[in-house]
Amino acid sequence: MRRIAARAGKKRRAGRRNMNAALLTGGFLCVAAIAPAQPVYNLTGLPLYPNLSRAKMDGVARTDALGHWCNRFAAETFDRNDVVQDWYRKALVNASETDLNNDERYKSLVKLSGIKLALGIDYVTVYRTANQTTTSIELFRCSAAT
């Protein structure tokens, strides 16, 4: 039983490495220009909102509730939530949209106003809470569940 679990763990780690390598070597590289900080690389390949005040690409992929390995790019802007949401609706024309109040991952946020735009298993979230002065943007590039 332990051998099976160890093999499964190795496969997951290999899958993560393969996904990260594909993202690093593929045509997905975008740079977020955030003044006056250093450039931040968006390895998700999903479109970047042009007026960011802060951004960070997570160093490791994480699993979601369905077992997909996802790389996350998190950013913030001082632009209004509705402006950013409209920009992403235009940038992701064929995306399905859901209210983040219906997403388990965001249930703990108080007075949440936001959307999730999904393209297959990849998705973008744009939201703001009552106590935030910025709009949060998260880009998720995911691999198939293993």
Describe this structure in words.
- There is one protein chain.
- By secondary structure, the protein is of the alpha+beta class.
- It has one domain (2-142).
- 24% of the residues lie in helices and 32% in strands.
- It has two helices and nine strands; from the N terminus they run H-E-E-E-E-E-H-E-E-E-E.
- Strands 3, 4, 5, 6, 7, 8 and 9 form a seven-stranded antiparallel beta sheet that branches. It has a two-stranded antiparallel ribbon with strand order 1-2.
- A hairpin with a 6-residue loop joins strand 8 and strand 9 (135-142).
- The protein starts with a helix and ends with a strand.
Task: List key phrases describing it.
146 residues, two-stranded antiparallel ribbon, 2 helices, globular
Can you describe this structure in just a few lines?
The chain has 146 residues and is an alpha+beta fold. The chain is built from 2 helices and 9 strands; from the N terminus they run H-E-E-E-E-E-H-E-E-E-E.
Apparent shape: globular
**Total number of strands:** 9
Query: Secondary-structure element sequence?
Result: HEEEEEHEEEE
**Average pLDDT metric:** 80
Task: Draw up the topology in text.
Layout: H1 2-25, E1 30-32, E2 40-42, E3 54-57, E4 62-63, E5 69-77, H2 81-91, E6 96-99, E7 113-119, E8 122-128, E9 135-142
Antiparallel strand pairs: 1-2, 3-5, 4-5, 5-9, 6-7, 7-8, 8-9
